[in-house]
Amino acid sequence: RYACSLVTGHTCLPSLTRLKQLQSQVISSSSFKQLLELEPTIREIVFAFYKSQYGKCLLLLSSGRENHLLDLYLSPHVDQLCTKIRCRALIQYFSPYKLADMRKMATAFNCTINELEDELMPLILDGQIQARIDSHNKILHAKDTDDRSLTFTRTLSLGKEYLHRTKALILRNAVIRNNISVQVPVSRDGEATSSVTR
């Protein structure tokens, strides 16, 4: 039972990209509520994450690590699940900001600035966090996205898709209007041979 609720809770946290999803699919879910009532620690972890209390959430995770490792089914996945939750917390923490003080961020995540940089680097390289690190001033800057260029690219892509669909509809209309049909007769050896008739 404990492993079931723990795996469910740990799996939901990193997979949900928005707090609204966490609210609707986990906290407000009647089936998940029953599991949370049975395991108050997991409930605290989920609610701490939801309230953006990442330090508390991660502290609860690490304090229960020894118990998690004793579980036969959960133990091989404990470190991976905790890492995913920590990564999701880092992404969620920075998402509303244009820049963040890495000193405060390190305090919130109970780690040193160097450890924080090491954690942020792969997330930035993977594109999970759109930012750059100012190591000298210890500031995390959000990358400026050119909204105009992005809108133009999307519009161009939609235009090409519309053109492709329009050509397909015109071709289909011409085929129907001219009563063109494709018949697939079967030859003596059992292979299909196509022929076009009008």
TrEMBL record:
Pfam families: CSN1_C, PCI. The keyword NAD does not apply. It is found in: Cytoplasm; Nucleus. The keyword Cytoplasm applies. It comes from the Eukaryota. Its main location: cytoplasm. Residues 1-147 form the PCI domain. Keywords: Cytoplasm, Nucleus, Signalosome. One of its GO terms (cellular component) is COP9 signalosome. Belongs to the CSN1 family. This is PCI domain-containing protein. The lineage of its organism: Eukaryota, Metazoa, Chordata, Tunicata, Ascidiacea.
